[in-house]
Every structure is written in structure tokens, then in C-alpha cells.
Amino acid sequence: MPEDTRKTMSDLDVLDGIPDPVILLNSKRRVVRINRAALNFFDMAFQGRDLAFLIRHPNVLSAVDATLSGGGAQREDISIAQDVTRQFTVHVSPMRIERHTDGLGAMVAMHDVTAARNAEEMRADFVANVSHELRSPLSSLVGFIETLRGVASDDPAAQKRFLTIMESEAQRMTRLIGDLLSLSRVEADEHIPPEDYVRLSDLLGSVVDSLSVRAAKHRMGIDLEIQPNLPAVIGEQDELVMVFQNLVTNAISYGREGTRISVTAKTVDRIPNLGDPGVAVCVADIGEGIAPDQIPRLTERFYRVDKGRSRSMGGTGLGLAIVKHIVSRHRGRLAIESKLGVGSRFTVYLPHDGTGARSKPANAP
Amino acid sequence: MAADHIVRSFDEDLTRLDNMIVEMGGLAEMQLSQAIEALVRRDVNLAESVAAGDARIDALEREVDIFTVDVLARRQPMAADLRLVISALKAANDLERIGDLSRNICKRTMALARTPPMGSAMNTVARMSRLVQEMIRNVLDAYIKRDVDMANDVWARDQEVDQLHTSLFRELLTYMMEDPRNITACTHLLFIAKNVERMGDHVTNIAEYIRMMVLGEMHDEMRPKDDQSSMTVISSDAVDARKSTESP
């Protein structure tokens, strides 16, 4: 084997072994080669195209132009938004690309620093959120404590009443902290997609069962309809349970008494805005519906359409934010449709495993 | 061969046009992202530097103008090639407008820094912008990949932006009616919200060009327009009622 080819082949092995995306450019800023990590990241045809087709961030393009015109190595900290936003430190180094002798090329390496940045941001956010949302129930508790010590210290009937209210406020705060922690956890891992396979038929069945008693309290029933041979989805069991528990609980809380909630699961050829085939799970209720201008804000943290009602039903205001982040982690989509006075439909789209091979249980014939 | 040489040059011209659009797109994305960061953080210095950066997009647009006229004159492209060149020209124009709107947001950010902070409304503006940022990103990806389905998806999403704008409009009117000291800040935020909503419309235009470029046809239906702000009226009774039910 000629000297050059052998050398080039082992270079490529090394490149493929590097977990960061690496791109090799010729002097005209055209892509000569990318490593496996870059292929997975960009998921696009690249050969011979200008770097701008892969990375159009102006700071990276300027840095590369600077390197290609002799400015030496460059470094840029950037943010790239794909399914989720990731932070990268991009290193550009001048490099002579052997086979192409038309001058100096460059190597672009992208180092993923998302996790570190996220951790910092989340710590700050969590503290801010906790103080803001707990302030009100806590001041309420303090007020009752003062009253019990003072004015109501000899009034057992009042004490009994107040203690009940205090207990419910304390429980609300506990639920709130629980939800905030769940949200934190999901966000921390949001940029890392799950790798397991989940059979939705089993999962949805158990979620519906666990909530049937609660539904019955409102004289509501839940109808579950699953397409036969539904392919398994790529996902994490516990998180998906949280998603559907949240959606069905909302349907029970906001649907009209005496009506039935419908949960359906079927395959779709194309997930909207994503393009891949997937599974659509729809939770629909008959109730008062949601005004169109409020729909885009539903997944906002602590956003409530009706504050008083949400609190009285024990809501924390975080349920849909958690759903949104879990769905985002699963590289799926959440679609909300509603008509005032009629009802609402929440549809979760999830990519499936492609072949349906894992949809059958291990001991199936 | 002479004929090959001519064809290859033309392909290079078209590729160069694509590159310029993509670069402009990348610039517009970054401008918006930094403008919103400056707004949310009340960072006057960042706002100033982003506003100055708009000149780069303007310069690129002029380049595209000159280059497309040159290509049309020299190559006299037909059919699909002609549609590509025209789409690039139009897309450059919309991208330049998006850049301008970002610069406008920066100017208002500098004014807002001297008024009391309006937390909740600011969050909604940031949310609207994230939606539009995603739309810009998707439409640019669709442009690069010539993906009509993706372009259609973006086209439909503008409705959500309009809805958010209506909601925000209402919210801001209410704040202004509650307390006249909020008026300056809310007015600037109203303009900023309008700018973001206009950006959504420009992105939708680009989605339509992609469709035209690939299929040679326009959308059958009118784009769903859900911006109700021009018909929004808030009565002072509603404001008083809100005040009395607000929890501490």
C-alpha cells in the first residue's frame, strides 16, 4: 500500500475515535472530510460543500476565515440550536490537508460544554423559582402560626380549621419542590437522548389503571385505544410515565364531570416539524377548552389559565413544563389543540424504533 | 470542453448564491438571539454592539442584489434555475428585514434599561422570540435541504406567534391601564413584540419561496393569520376586576 494512503487511513481512524465532531476543510472553506461524531451531529450531506452549510454561526465562519488567511489557531464559544440548544467551544487549527495541495486548510473541532453550562444555569434558576413560588404559601403559614399563638390561642375550633389549612399548604409546597426537582433532573439530561425501548401499550395501560379511581371520583371514565402491533418507542420508562400521568391528570381536572377521557395511540408516517415516522399518543377531554391565545403559554413554568382553580385542585403549575422537557429530551413533539366550550387534545409524538422489532415481548412466539 | 466549463461556472454561481443566503441567515439568527439576550438582561452594551452588527447583514444583502442581477444578465437562467435565483434575491431581502427588526429591538432595549423592569411581559416576549428563532433555524435548514414539508411546517407555525402576540398585547394594555408609570416601558415592549411578530411573517415568506423554488407553485390557501391585536380593546372594568382577584 502506498505510504500516503496508509498514513491517511490511520489518521481517519484517529478522527473517528474522537467523540467531538471534527471537520476538515480545504483552503476554499469546502468540507473535505468529517469524522463519525460530526456525521451523527449534522446528519446532512457534506462532501465538497462550503462549511456554512453545516455551521452557519457567523463567529465560527469568521474564525475559520481568519485561520485560512494565515491568522493561526482560533477559538470561539458558541451556542448551536438543534432539537435542544447545545453550547460548544469551537477550536479552529490551521492544517495542511495532504491530498489537496492548494494551500492551507483547517481543522474545526467542536467541544461540547453543554452539561457544564446547564448545571450552572439550573442551579441559579432553581433558587430563583423556589423562592418565588414558595413565598406565598410560606407567608400564609407564618400568618396562621402567628394567629394560633395570639388571637386564636384559646379557640380549639379555629385551631382545628387553621391546622387543616396549614397542612394543605405544607403539602402543596412539598409537591412543588418535588416537581421542581423533577424538572431540574429532566433539564439536566435533556441534551442526552434516551437509548432504551419502551412498549407504550403496557405503559399506557398501567397509567390509565392507576388513575381510574381518581377519574371515578369525578364520575369520569378513561377509554384506552391502542393500535395493534404498535412499535416500541425510543425512550425512558419513568419519564414517559410522568408525561402521560400528567396529561391524564389534567384531563381529569379540567374535563367536565360525567364525561369520558380518550387516550389513543397509533403510528404516524411523519411527526410534524420533524419528518421522521413515529407514534402519536393523544389524550382528549370534553370540557371547557382553552382560549387560543393561551395555548402557546401552557407549557410555560407556573403559567396558569385560572390561578384560583389550579391551586384548589392542588396543581403546581409545572406539570406541562415537565411534559414539554421530557418530550423534548425524547426528540418528540407536543401538540395542543383546543376549542373553547368543547374540549382539548394533547398529542405527544415520539420517534419509534423503526422496524417494530422490539414491539413484541421477549417470550412471544 | 468549453460547454462543461460554462455549466460548471454556472453551478458555482448558484452555489455561491446559496452560501450567501446561508451566511446571511446565520447572521440574522445570531443577531436575534443576542438582541433578546440583551433585552432580558437589560444589557445596554450588548444591545449597542448588536445594533452595530446589523451593517454586516446589510452589506451581504447588497452583495446578493448585485450578484443576482449579474447572474440573470450573464446566464439568463430558465425554469428551476431562474426560480432559484429569484428566490435567493427575495429571501435575502426578508433576511435583511429580520436583521433590521433585531437592530430596532436593540434600540428599544437601550431605552427600556432606564425604565422599571416588567418581568412577566418580558418573559412572554422572550418566549415569542424563541419561537421565531426556531422558525428561522428551521426555514434555513429547509432552504439548504430544499425540503418543502419542513417549509410547510414553518409556514403553519406563524399562527402560534400571532397568538402569542395577541396575548401579549392584551397583557401590556392591562399593565398600562393599571398604572400610568408602566406606560413608557410597556409601549417599548409593544413595539418590540410587534417587531418579533413581523419577523415571523418574513420567515413565512421565505418558506413560501422554498415552496416556489422546489414545486414552482404558490400556496393555495392564505396563510392563517391569527393576530387579533388590531381589534383588541380592554375595558377599564376588566382591569379593576383583575386587580381585585389577583392573589398577593
Number of strands of chain A: 12
Tally of helical segments of chain B:
7
- Order of strands across the widest beta sheet of chain A? 2-1-5-4-3
How far apart the termini of chain B lie comes to 81 Å
pLDDT below 50 for ≥5 consecutive residues: which ranges of chain A?
356-365
Which structural class do you get from the secondary structure elements of chain A?
A: alpha+beta
Percentage of residues in helical conformation of chain A: 40-55%
**Number of discrete helical segments of chain A:** 9
Rounded to the nearest angstrom, the radius of gyration of chain A is 27 Å
Largest sheet of chain A: 5 strands, antiparallel
The SSE order of chain A reads HEEHHEEEHHEHEEHEEHHEE
Question: What is the rounded Rg of chain B?
Answer: 21 Å
Strand content of chain A: 15-25%
Helix content of chain B: over 70%
> Judging from the principal axes of the Cα atoms, what is the shape of chain A?
elongated
The first-to-last residue Cα distance of chain A is 51 Å
Give the SSE string of chain B: HHHHHHH
The whole-number mean of residue pLDDT values of chain B reads 88
Q: What is the multimeric organization of the chains shown?
A: heterodimer
Give a written overview of the molecule.
The complex is a heterodimer of chains A (365) and B (248). With 365 residues, chain A is an alpha+beta fold. Chain A has helices at residues 3-17, 36-42, 58-71, 114-149, 156-189, 200-217, 237-254, 307-312, 319-329; strands spanning 22-25, 31-34, 74-81, 85-95, 105-112, 197-198, 221-226, 233-234, 260-268, 278-286, 333-339, 343-351. Chain A contains 9 helices and 12 strands. A 5-stranded antiparallel sheet of chain A has the order 2-1-5-4-3, sandwiched between helices. In chain A, strands 7-9-10-12-11 form a 5-stranded mixed sheet, covered by helices on one side. In chain A, helix 7 (237-254) packs antiparallel against helix 9 (319-329). By secondary structure, chain B is mostly helical. Helices cover 83% and strands 0% of the residues of chain B. Chain B contains 7 helices and no strands. Chains A and B meet through helix 3 of A and helix 1, helix 4 and helix 5 of B.
